Amino acid sequence: MKTAIIIGASRGLGLGLAQELVKRGWQVVATQRSPSAELAAVAGVTVENVDIDDVEAVQALAARQKGPFDLVFVNAGVTGPKHGSADKVTADELAALMMTNATSPIRTARALLGTVKPGGTIAFMSSILGSVALRQHAMAELYSASKAALNSLTRGFAAAEGKDFAVLSLHPGWVKTDMGGDGADIDVATSVTGLANVIEAETAPGHRYLDYTGKTLPW
Ligand SMILES: NC(=O)c1ccc[n+]([C@@H]2O[C@H](COP(=O)([O-])OP(=O)(O)OC[C@H]3O[C@@H](n4cnc5c(N)ncnc54)[C@H](OP(=O)(O)O)[C@@H]3O)[C@@H](O)[C@H]2O)c1
User: Which one of 7, 13, 82, 191 would you pick to mutate in the ligand 1 pocket, going by the greatest count of ligand atoms within 8 A of its CB?
Assistant: First the structure.
């Protein structure tokens, strides 16, 4: 039986991925920041608590995990301030966005590294908006910069760990969640079915930046 820990699974894509992996016969640990009735309702999932910005809570979560996991998936992320503008952002807003979207995911993955099976997978929820190569528009500049920073940090993480593990930076599509909004392209089920297919297929060591259909994205 395959095993996974999904960080940030109270709702949206993290919740959907927990449901999808359980459906495929995986044994899943899934985390929430505060109680999620939807997560509690997923039969067979072990629910844990963590805020990835809380260093001590992340260390305590890692210490509680026996694993070994085939997959550590750091999904948690935020949109950042509504104005989304580099001109308007305050130091506190920027720190909070970069902490949650860029540095905390890497710190969480490092804390959990000892729980991953040799040859296992560490996946980060990136975004196509984190691609510098594809950035020929001005949309969501702060959020995009935070995911570009996550991609850069993940390349460093993979340079150190990618020989032993598959490291995946994943774009879920534009998905109808609280973050993606009602006007998004695809629903959660379509995205997480694709993401689970990619995770099950892309097990070779090394770092890859892929969307939910398995397409490689340019950095
Ligand atoms: N939806 C899209 O179109 C889209 C596209 C590209 C990438 N993404 C990325 O996909 C991931 C999931 O997005 P989503 O659309 O499912 O968004 P969502 O519905 O807003 O869910 C965000 C999840 O992240 C959790 N979270 C946020 N900050 C956290 C923290 N400090 N510690 C622990 N958990 C935290 C939330 O927990 P709470 O319930 O406690 O807030 C929630 O479970 C994010 O990384 C997002 O950037 C989404």
Answer: 13
Distance, CA of 17 to CA of 13 (rounded, Å): 6
Which residue, 76, 140, 69, 63, is CA-closest to 106? Answer: 76
Query: Across the chain, which distance is largest between two alpha carbons, in Å?
Result: 50
CA of 118 to the centre of ligand 1 (A): 28
Q: What pLDDT digit, counting tens, does each position of 97-153 carry?
A: 999 999 999 999 999 999 999 999 999 999 999 999 999 988 899 999 999 999 999
Mention every residue, 6+ apart, whose C-beta is less than 8 A from residue 79. Answer: 140, 143, 179
- What residues contact 59, with CB distance under 8 A and at least 6 apart? 111
Q: Which of 128, 179, 190, 210 to mutate to test the pocket of ligand 1 (most atoms within 8 A of CB)?
A: 179
Both structure tokens of 90: 């305050």
Q: How far is the CA of 199 from the centre of ligand 1 (A)?
A: 19
Domains and CATH numbers, the chain: 3-211 (3.40.50.720)
pTM of the predicted model as reported, rounded to 2 decimal places:
0.98
- Is 177:13 a contact under the CB 8 Å cutoff? yes
CA nearest neighbour of 209 among 157, 131, 133, 134: 131
